[in-house]
Write a structure and sequence with these properties.
By secondary structure, the chain is an alpha+beta fold. The chain has a single domain, classed as Aspartate Aminotransferase, domain 1 (Alpha-Beta Complex), CATH 3.90.1150. Helix content is 34%, strand content 26%. It is built from 4 helices and 7 strands; from the N terminus they run ααββββαββαβ. Strands 1, 2, 3, 4, 5, 6 and 7 form a 7-stranded antiparallel beta sheet that branches. A hairpin with a 4-residue loop joins β3 (68-78) and β4 (83-87). The radius of gyration is 15 Å and the shape is globular. The N and C termini lie far apart (30 Å).
Length: 144
């Protein structure tokens, strides 16, 4: 029996307005820099997912359980505590890239970074590309 769809869905909210509204000045500057970074690395335009996720690309998944939906392919959220960077579906084979990344913490399918100055942006670009390649092997990724 299929479950309810994800609570986090794509919206038509203005990405730039959201990023400019980030309260903390350093987090806001990093969020605007990440937007430019993701646009360059992916070649895609951003789209808001829910009230606080900025996504680039999207994919549709379907599990044997019957659950299916769509979600952002990669992106970030400028949270109060840190920047959450989403590299989906996870980090299973990316240890060598993560070793080059710099100061970060891992979540289930995201990185937590205090500020962009703490990480190597070239390594992050490699990680985003590797994550998108891995995701695209499972479910086709479409541009946004």
């Amino acid at each position: 029996m299929p479950r309810d769809p994800n609570k986090t869905q794509a919206t038509d909210a203005d990405v730039t307005a959201f990023l400019r509204s980030v309260e903390h000045s350093q987090r806001r500057a990093d969020a605007l820099a990440l937007d430019a970074f993701f646009r360059k690395v992916t070649g895609w335009q951003p789209r808001m997912w829910g009230p606080s996720l900025v996504g680039y690309g999207q994919y549709h998944y379907s599990y044997a359980s019957g659950r299916e939906d769509g979600f952002l392919a990669t992106g970030f959220s400028p949270r109060k505590a840190s920047l959450s960077i989403y590299i989906l579906p996870g980090f299973a084979d990316f240890g060598a890239i993560l070793d080059r990344l710099g100061k970060h913490k891992l979540g289930k399918s995201c990185l937590y970074v205090n500020k962009l100055a703490d990480i190597d942006m070239s390594a992050l670009a490699d990680l985003v590309r590797a994550g998108l390649d891995d995701l695209n092997r499972r479910w086709p990724v479409e541009p946004t």
